[in-house]
Structures are given as structure tokens and as C-alpha cells.
Amino acid sequence: MTWQRSASQWFRLPAERLWDVLSRPERWAEWNPAVAGAALDGGLREGATGHYSPAHRLLGPLHSRTAPAFTVTAAEPVRRLALRQPQPGGHQDIEWTVEERDGGTLFTQTVSLHGPLAQQFGLTAGEPLVRRFAEQCARLYRLAEAHDGDRPERLTVLAGGSGFLGTLLAADLTCSGHDVAVLARARRSSPFRQILWDGRRPGAWSEELGRAGSLSIVNLCGADLDRPGTPENLELLERSRTVPTLALAAASREWERPVAHWVQQSGVHVYAGLSEPAGETAPVPESTPGLAAVVRAWEASAAGARAERMSIMRTGVVLHRDAPLMSRLATPARLGAGGHLGTGGQWFSWIHAADWVRAARTALGLPPGPGEEPLGVPAGVMNATAPHPVTNREFMARLRDALGVPAGIPAPTPLFRLAAAVLRTNPDLALDSIRAVPESLLSAGFRFEHPYLASALEEMTS
């Protein structure tokens, strides 16, 4: 059996800079928090041996006492480094490659386990090494970049940047050489510059942002939608979005220069109640309650911002192997409960995380990716969704295919609502029918890396 995870990130750096860090295993722990320490027994060469220790407080000491040495199976300078760690009944391979591409370097990390216990060791030994890959890359960039003290003139600030999507975007921008800062309510271990704020009113944070030569803002503030849809929770969801947005908007009106690009996160639930496919010009139902009302208030709270360009990203469900949604859906599917939810005919609007990052870069006036040109996407509403939404029935079937599960028991609406109450989640996230289409992105020539669900799920499970 085999367990494998692979991921890549482009760096605006020469390959030699990355290789200088990667080729020194003693620095592994500096960019991957899952590693407590590592060292070679001698110089770096094929056949050399060494030891590494996981950072886990229980597994780390056990590994250090019982695990044999790893072996360097490949050491091709400024190209490829591979390690093999024996495991009971098999082994674990860790491979890093660097490839010069599009004026920078593409870094790829692959972790695979082989043997009869590959799946079990994948969860305990492999998964921690690949988790939060974006943050790993941001740390790796910081270690490999030239420390000349200069920063780009343009500052991009992410409010709500310590969350899942904010981390992905901040890491991508960092690795592209941009000056990035995250507005945070408390300091945490992070590879990104943090600016403290209370999320309620202008203060020292707004004075610091006002001094930036050129400022772009990405507003991702908001509590997790995945909670029961009680009146109290809906009020929390709305307040956690509108209050910080109003504070940002108020601060922007005090700055000498307007914000160059303001990217306002939103959600496709604003289209709840529409039966037809919804492009950016579709009329928004004004009376739909629940999550739709939360999203309407969220968008309205940004109306007073002073910005040269405002983009409102109405985002579908973002698919990524680290996203909480995947564990919520994948675990029941593996246990045989992966049938359609409700009628199964409701539409599901989604986007792969890599394409969401590319769309956010486009909204910031940047090229979607290395080697590409900026796109002329109009300001205003942008549907950040894949071009091919699917029904819930198809989504669950594709998910089962990706997980290798042949069948799944469906959950009729009453049963699913009961299960959602037990699991403390909002059933409307799955039962609302929303068929959003990204007309603005498609018209501008945006290229989706994962336009179809099958390829998105395959990338997430490989």
C-alpha cells in the first residue's frame, strides 16, 4: 500500500537560494514546525545517513528512541534531495525538488509511505510533515531571501489573514516577493509580519497603514460559517464581518491616499433563492433570510471604504486538503455514509483553493500566476467559483470516487438536519441550492487550474 501527498509553490528566488536552505537538514525545523530537529552524520551525499525528530510531544521522543537512521537516496545539487526513513514493514520517502521556471523557482515537496501500514503511518508520520504547506513555504522564503532590508513600495494587508484562506494568500504573495502584513488581534507564531488591531475602531494600526506608500487591503474577516444557524449564531456571523469591515472603511477615509485595491471577501449565499445560474449581474434576492442576509450585510458594510478599486469576491465552498470541510465530509464517506444529502438535486458552487488564490491575485491587479499577464477583470462583483458547479448528488459521488469508496448511504433532509444539530453545523451550507458562475473571470480570459470537480478532488487526495 502507498500513502502520498505532493504540493508545489513558486518562489521569486533563484534556485540556488532555496537549495542553500534545503540542502542543510539542520535547518529543516526552521521552516517546518512538524520537525523538532534533524542532522546528517556526515556531509550531504547520496548514501549519507542522519536522524530527524518529529515535534510531536509523544511521537517525537518515541521516534528518537526507536527509529533507525534515514538515508539520503538522492542529492543532486540545485535540483533534487530525497531521504528515506525506514518504518515497520516499509519506509517513508521525503523528496524536495527545485526547478527554475518563469523567472523564479518551482519548489515541490512529496511525502510518501510504502508498506502494509502506509495508511496508518500516513496519518501519524506523513500528515504532520505536509500540513500547512503554504506556511512552510513562507518560512522557507524568509530563510532563503536576500536580507537587504528593502521592502517593495506596495504593502498588502490582510484583515482576517490568520485564517485558512488568508494564510494561503499571504504565503503566496510572500513567496512572490510582496510586502505582506496581517492584521491580528493577538500575536501568534507566524511567518508573516503582524500588525495588532482590535477589529473595532481605528487606532495605532490605522496610523501605520496610512503611512504606506501604496496600500492594498484584502478583507477576510469573519467567524467560521460552519455552526448551527440559530438567531444567535447568525448575529455572531454578521457582527464578526460587519464590525471589522466598518472599522477598516472608517480608517480608509482618514488616510491621505485611497486604498489602491480593496478586495472584499463575500459569499455566494447571497444568491440563495435563485433558481437560474447566477452570474455577477444576477439580481440579489433582498428578502432571503439566514446566511444570505449575513452576506448582504457584509457587502453593505464595505460601501463606505475609500478605495480606487473595490472588488467583491463572492466565494463558493473552497476545496483544499487542509480545509475543515474535507474532514467533515470525508470521514462519514469512508464509513459508508457518503450518499447525497437532502434531495441531492441542490446545486453546489465550489472552487479549488489554488484557483481562489489566483482569483484573489487578479482582484489585486496582479498576474494570476508566474509567467502570466494581469487580466482586465472589471472592478465590482466577482464570482470566485469554478465554471462548472455540480449538484450535491454528483459532488458526493465524485468524493466517494476520490476516496475509493464504492457506495454511500444518502441522508434525507430530516435526517440530515438532525445529524447537523448533533454535529453542531449548519445544514443550509449543504441544502441551499446555489449555482453561481464566474462570468467576469471567464470573460477576462482567466485560466482555472481545476475547472472540473474530478481534477480538484484528485489533487486533494494525491
Automatic annotation (TrEMBL):
Residues 158-364 form the NAD-dependent epimerase/dehydratase domain. Residues 414-459 form the DUF1731 domain. The lineage of its organism: Bacteria, Bacillati, Actinomycetota, Actinomycetes, Micrococcales. This is DUF1731 domain-containing protein.
